Amino acid sequence: AEKRLDEVSEKLIINIGDTKTVGNVEFTLEKLEFSHRVEPVEKPIFYSYYSPDGSDVYVYVKANIKNISKNDLSCDEIYDVEVIYNNDYSYDGFQVVQDSSLGFTYSNITNIDPLTSRGVDTLISCPGEVETNTEAPVLVKITFETGEVFVANLR
User: Fold this and answer.
1) Are 49 and 40 in contact (CB under 8 A)?
2) Among 34, 139, 135, 38, which Cα is nearest to 83's?
3) CA–CA separation, 45 and 38 (whole Å)
4) Which of 19, 25, 111, 126 has the least CB density, counted as fewest CB within 10 Å?
5) Do the beta carbons of residue 26 and residue 41 sit within 8 Å?
6) Which tens digit of pLDDT belongs to each residue from 52-111?
7) Which of 44, 47, 4 is nearest to 153 (CA)?
8) What does the H/E/C string look like for the chain?
């Protein structure tokens, strides 16, 4: 059974602006929001953006990842995100990497060099009700490859 945020140990909670050192990375949660259009931070002349299907909404997790190891780190092997709506419904998403020349690129073909940082973001498509039903809680569970888990309260 999932724990409500108030039942989770305080050290496992992550808030916007927090940086957590987990394994070989420093993870900074930069943004956590509902979004109907996600655009890259740096916008070249031609760039891609993401928009959910139909009446769906994205839960957008914007993270900055610093590689503190001595080896390259594959962007798709750092963390996963699960959105838990109303303590009962679970949604998974996909990751994209901020890229200055493309806007976004794919996480499975991108590495982070030692002692450098990249924006590795996650988009989780959810039914529109997840955004509009303001009475129901929305938790974001961030699970790292090390097995460590942090929880953020979106609502």
Assistant:
1) yes
2) 139
3) 16
4) 19
5) no
6) 999 999 999 999 999 999 999 999 999 999 999 999 999 999 999 998 888 888 889 899
7) 4
8) CCCCHHHCCHHHECCCCCEEEECCEEEEEEEEEEECCECCCCCCCCCCCECCCCCCEEEEEEEEEEECCCCCEEHHHCEEEEEEECCCEEEECEEEEEECCCEEEEHHHCEECCCCEEEEEEEEEECCHHHHCCCCCEEEEEEECCCCEEEEECC
**What is the tens place of the pLDDT at every residue in 44-68?**
788 888 999 999 999 999 999 999 9
Sheet holding 57-67, edge to edge: 19-22, 25-35, 57-67, 117-126, 94-99, 103-106
What residues contact 81, with CB distance under 8 A and at least 6 apart? Answer: 59, 61, 92, 93, 122, 124, 140, 141, 142, 143
Tokens of 57: 């909404």
pTM score of the predicted model: 0.89
Distance CA 69, CA 60 (A): 27
